[in-house]
Amino acid sequence: MVMIISTMEPQVSNGPTSNTSNGPSSNNRNCPSPMQTGAATDDSKTNLIVNYLPQNMTQEEFRSLFGSIGEIESCKLVRDKITGQSLGYGFVNYIDPKDAEKAINTLNGLRLQTKTIKATVYFFCFSLL
């Protein structure tokens, strides 16, 4: 008889988890995050993903909300290409990593209409698979 024993690696969590999704996760491509590789730099800490935004939020309101924290290099509220309706998530890239950290500390968990937004650092990588 052959027995196969599998061990599970512990998962690192940065807040509550949920089985439902509203937009992409911050690392859903099995790519190591800079925290896992030890390669985190200030540049990697300026880009945020913001989930659970109200569907009627405008690009201008999104920029104004996050721009109240600090100077933004870019921001994008993601919309459906056909209907133009918000998909409930967006990206904000700050110039200063301290502003990104302040935005997370200030706006993460903020209640907007019927939604509670989630702002986290967005790590991305490219896979050749």
TrEMBL record:
Q: Keywords in UniProt for this one? A: Repeat, RNA-binding
Under PROSITE patterns, the record lists:
RRM
Region (Disordered) residue ranges read: 1-43
Residue spans with biased composition (Polar residues)?
29-39
- Keyword tRNA-binding in annotation: no
Stretches assigned to the RRM domain = 46-118
One GO MF term attached to the UniProt entry: mRNA binding
* Claim: Repeat is one of the keywords in the record: yes
GO CC, sorted alphabetically, is: nucleus; ribonucleoprotein complex
**Compositionally skewed regions (Low complexity) per UniProt:** 13-28
Which InterPro entries does the annotation name? Elav_RRM1, Euk_RNA-bind_prot, Hud_Sxl_RNA, Nucleotide-bd_a/b_plait_sf, RBD_domain_sf, RRM_dom
Q: Which domain of life is it from?
A: Eukaryota
- Give one Pfam hit by family name: RRM_1
**Name of the protein described by the UniProt record:** ELAV like RNA binding protein 4
Taxonomic path: Eukaryota, Metazoa, Chordata, Craniata, Vertebrata
